[in-house]
Amino acid sequence: MLAAFAMLGLLFAGHALPAQAQDILGLSLRPTDAMTGSPGRGAVDITRSNGEGNYSIKVDMSGTADSMDLASFDGATSWVVWAVDMDGIRHNVGTLDADLMLESASVDYMIARVYITAEADAKAKQPSDPLFSVTLRQVEEVDTVAEDDTAGDEAATDEAAASDASADASGTDTSASAESSTPAELPTTGGPVSDMLMLLAIAGLLVFGGLRLRAVRVD
User: Fold this and answer.
1) Which CATH class is domain 19-140?
2) pLDDT for 159-199, tens place per residue?
3) Three-class SS of residue 28?
């Protein structure tokens, strides 16, 4: 009897452990209001992988095959599985195969929610309305920022900064050229004394020439 109670206590303790303390967690993916009719339930297994904070996700929706028809969703081509981390960021972790299975998807974050959507793009960055969902912990979800978009924004910022720097450099060169430009200087002989002698000589020639011109007029 005591052994039986001890066994029950261990089982209860195991179920009472939080999700992050268990090695394997099996959950049901329940249909949301976006699914019509009487769809069944899917299953998701979340397994702690080797290494702290690493998890593996396996999804099996084969039991709902009768109610899952991509043609019912305009433009949809893929069933996409999403995992939401504890910060509320949504991650596209893969698509269901022809058997409505996702064999394994590895993530490096704790999982707060898993759901499935019908998407036109298998690599969608933002989910449409969840069709099947399971919540492990309530978090406020935030929009996912695509890595390639971030890279594009950074490249555009760098390009703009380079353009501004080039414009500043061009303006500096123009200013420097303008400041270095001075009016043309008259030629000199190289020193103040020599310049004075030259001026005196020129003045003398002018005076001498004037006297000669006057003498000619008198004659």
Assistant:
1) mainly beta
2) 655 566 555 555 555 555 545 544 444 455 555 556 666 76
3) strand
